[in-house]
Design goal:
Elements lengths: L31 H8 L2 H9 L23 H12 L13 H17 L1 H17 L6 H21 L5 H14 L2 H4 L8 H18 L1 H7 L12 H4 L5 H8 L11 H19 L4 H8 L1 H4 L2 H8 L3 H14 L12 H12 L16 H7 L4 H9 L14 H7 L12 E3 L3 E3 L34 H12 L17
Antiparallel strand pairs: 1-2
Helix pairs in contact: 1-2, 3-5, 4-5, 5-6, 5-7, 6-7, 6-22, 7-9, 9-22, 12-13, 13-14, 13-17, 16-17, 17-18, 17-19
Length: 487
């Protein structure tokens, strides 16, 4: 008799062999190989799944990034890396005590740049200039192309006014102020580029006007636009007497008489620099000097670009303070030649020629242009040859305390808050004033159809300057001498 399950048995009454039922041996636990790979963790499983079956050979598979900028090369990537470790710090005068600013500059702006080529070109352009400043090799053709493409893309974005690019427009309006300083350091730089650079700074306010303040605050970049508060009444007490007399002596019938109030208000902002300098060299002084043009009345910018003598005298004195700045590298080389360029419009500087009414007013700027030590420069500005700077070190507790005063301020220097619209921190019936022009109503969220909506008086001229810069030109430097009122 065959053993159970053998093939020798037959079913009674049939000729068919009998097969006993056996339990199946297939597991319901799934594929053994897959279980083996999964049991050692996701990373090990991924390696096992991507490893070649050929002995002694491994094939590593790399995932493609979700996004990479088009047409990037090794130079682009090197510059982007250098920006994130070094150049970003050029825009944070108080980097050691403001990690929030670092986060904006290193992370948030880069995120916007990956989606907007003109902002990426702006970042690469300023980094190229920084590396050149440090003596590191950068192809000059690339540096020029970055600048030109940054300005061209920026202008196009303004004209299109696509809300998707608004955060990038805000960031670019600030960074382009530094990018454009390359013109000052060019060997063949056009004289009086300072008159164009003034307008570049005004672009910050124009962009905020275009995109609306609520977009700025939603973008998370509002801290980049903090400024030092200004007490204009106290600052008026520090205006040099000769500059004050230059304005108060105007009489009815003089060409500049209708603008007496404009000149006097501008001198108050200049007085704030003299007042700050009395306290010594500090981070807050640097910031006051750098942001000075963002406060000024719109009418004064027009007068300066028309080369009105009194406006040029004030610009020359501000350039003296630029020589005192110990701040970012991109502020270097701005004032050295431009002080004399401005003064030469008013006075020949030749001791053998008779003096004119402007000679005494440019005496201080001419003296400063021949000095190198900023303590000596400060002595000339303060007209005090026994002055010594107080022992206030940058980063010291006293300096840090002053830096903490930075806030959103209007163009009268008073602190404001944004609550659907700008209001003063200290309640008052007055509304904050911005000299760039009236902001659109922040409560209105209608779509912006064209960038020309920013066109207050400065808008068209600003766009014209941006267009000229996109061709890597030095801009207009204001009206030509033939169209300007000469001294």
């Amino acid at each position: 008799m065959a053993s159970p399950g053998g093939s020798g048995e037959t079913i009674p009454g049939t000729d068919k062999p009998y097969h006993s039922k056996r339990p199946h041996r297939k597991s319901r636990a799934g594929c053994r190989n897959l279980s083996r790979r999964s049991s050692v963790g996701p990373d090990a499983a991924r390696q096992a799944a991507t490893r070649s079956t050929v002995p002694d050979q491994d094939i590593l598979l790399f995932r493609e990034p979700a996004y990479s900028p088009p047409d990037t090369d090794a130079t682009d990537m090197k510059l982007l890396w250098f920006y994130t470790i070094k150049t970003y710090d050029s825009f944070n005068a108080q980097s050691s005590i403001a990690p929030a600013i670092d986060e904006i500059l290193k992370i948030r702006i880069i995120q916007y740049a990956f989606a907007t080529p003109f902002l990426m070109n702006t970042i690469l352009g300023i980094t190229a200039e920084h590396m050149k400043h440090l003596g590191l090799p950068v192809p000059e053709s690339k540096a020029i192309a970055y600048r030109a493409n940054a300005f061209a893309g920026y202008r196009k974005a303004i004209e299109e006014a696509d809300p998707e690019t608004f955060p990038a427009l805000l960031a670019s309006s600030l960074l382009l102020c530094a990018v454009s300083t390359a013109h000052f350091r060019d060997e063949d730089a056009r004289p009086l580029y300072i008159l164009d650079w003034i307008l570049v700074w005004r672009g910050i306010g124009l962009m905020i006007q275009l995109v609306k303040p609520d977009v700025l605050f939603r973008s998370g970049m509002e801290r980049l636009f903090f400024r030092p508060p200004v007490d204009l009444n106290t600052s008026a007490l520090h205006i040099p007497s000769n500059l004050l007399f230059m304005v108060t002596s105007l009489k009815e019938g003089d060409d500049d008489f209708p603008d007496v109030a404009v000149y006097y208000e501008t001198l108050k902002y200049l007085g704030a620099l003299y007042r700050e300098l009395l306290g010594g060299f500090s981070g807050i002084l640097d910031l006051r000097v750098i942001t000075w043009y963002t406060f000024l009345p719109r009418r004064f910018i027009e007068l300066a670009r028309r080369r009105r003598p009194r406006a040029l005298v004030i610009v020359a004195h501000h350039l003296c303070f630029v020589r005192c700045v110990n701040g970012p590298w991109w502020m270097e080389g701005i004032a050295e030649r431009e002080i004399d360029n401005v003064c030469n419009l008013l006075d020949s500087g030749d001791a053998g020629e008779p003096a004119n009414e402007w000679t005494s007013l440019v005496r201080v700027p001419r003296a400063v242009s021949r000095l190198a030590d900023r303590t000596e420069i400060a002595k000339v500005l303060l007209d005090n040859h026994t002055w010594t700077p107080p022992s206030l070190k940058r980063g010291s507790p006293e300096d840090t305390e002053r830096i903490d005063e930075l806030a959103w301020v209007d163009d009268t220097g008073k602190e404001v808050a944004f609550m659907g619209e700008f209001v003063y921190r200290i309640p008052t019936r007055q509304k904050p004033r911005f000299n760039i022009g009236d902001y659109p109503d922040p409560g209105m969220n209608e779509e912006v159809n064209t960038g020309t909506r920013i066109m207050s008086a400065e808008g068209p001229e600003y766009l014209s300057l941006v267009q000229a810069s996109s061709g890597d030109e030095s801009g207009s430097s204001g009206p030509s001498p033939s169209s300007a009122t000469t001294p």
